């Protein structure tokens, strides 16, 4: 029996045969948070306390870099739409990406703005907040005031 024939004859569960990744809300949000970190704050600028990501680095390449950054940022919008966020939130997230891309296209000043604005982290924060309030996602932070009780 050849390798191909043994592969064809192997029993498989059709429900998991083509599953690429976990599609739960928590898993999707975790992936988006990692992507936002990579795009906006993956690298520490030596000698400073400022972080930049791949988006700011490729944004140094005129026109093409800013377009590529907007394209990568739009994946977060795609996932947000898939997770069922309302149109008004998608529009707000899209405005963050468009604003980041348009101002980032301005030479030098736009690159500095791009390193500071961090549209992807803003969008993932908006998405997380929406899913915590309306999507059944457990909060990542506890809201309120802590009071120490000495007994």
Describe this structure in words.
The protein is mainly alpha-helical. It has one domain. The protein has seven helices and two strands, in the order ααββααααα. It has helices at residues 3-9, 25-41, 54-58, 64-82, 87-104, 109-117, 119-134; strands spanning 43-44, 51-52. Strands 1-2 form a two-stranded antiparallel sheet. A hairpin with a 6-residue loop joins β1 and β2 (51-52). α5 packs antiparallel against α7. The protein is globular, with a radius of gyration of 21 Å. The N and C termini lie far apart (75 Å). The mean pLDDT is 84.
Instruction: Report helical residue fraction.
Output: 55-70%
* C-alpha-based Rg, rounded: 21 Å
| Largest sheet strand order | 1-2
Report, as a whole number of angstroms, the end-to-end distance. 75 Å
Going by helix content, strand content and strand pairing, the class is: mainly alpha
Largest sheet: 2 strands, antiparallel
What's the total number of strands?
A: 2
Instruction: Give start-end ranges of low-pLDDT stretches.
Output: none
Average pLDDT rating:
84
Strand content: under 5%
Explain briefly what this protein structure is:
It is built from seven helices and two strands, in the order H-H-E-E-H-H-H-H-H.
Note the main attributes of this structure.
single chain, about 150 residues, mainly alpha, two-stranded antiparallel sheet, 7 helices, DUF4112, DUF4112 domain-containing protein, transmembrane, membrane
Strands, helices and their partners?
Layout: H1 3-9, H2 25-41, E1 43-44, E2 51-52, H3 54-58, H4 64-82, H5 87-104, H6 109-117, H7 119-134
Antiparallel strand pairs: 1-2
Helix pairs in contact: 2-4, 2-7, 4-5, 4-7, 5-6, 5-7
């Amino acid at each position: 029996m050849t390798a191909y024939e043994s592969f064809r004859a192997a029993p498989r569960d059709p429900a998991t045969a083509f599953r690429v990744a976990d599609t739960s809300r928590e898993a999707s949000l975790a992936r988006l948070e990692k992507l936002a970190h990579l795009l906006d704050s993956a690298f520490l600028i030596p000698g400073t306390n400022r972080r930049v990501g791949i988006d700011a680095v490729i944004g140094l390449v005129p026109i093409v870099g800013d377009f590529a950054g907007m394209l990568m940022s739009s994946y977060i919008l795609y996932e947000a739409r898939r997770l069922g966020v309302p149109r008004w939130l998608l529009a707000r997230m899209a405005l963050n990406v468009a604003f980041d891309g348009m101002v980032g296209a301005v030479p030098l000043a736009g690159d500095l703005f791009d390193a500071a604005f961090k549209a992807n982290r803003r969008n993932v924060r908006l998405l997380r907040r929406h899913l915590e309030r309306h999507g059944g996602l457990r909060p990542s932070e506890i809201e309120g005031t802590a009071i120490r009780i000495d007994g």
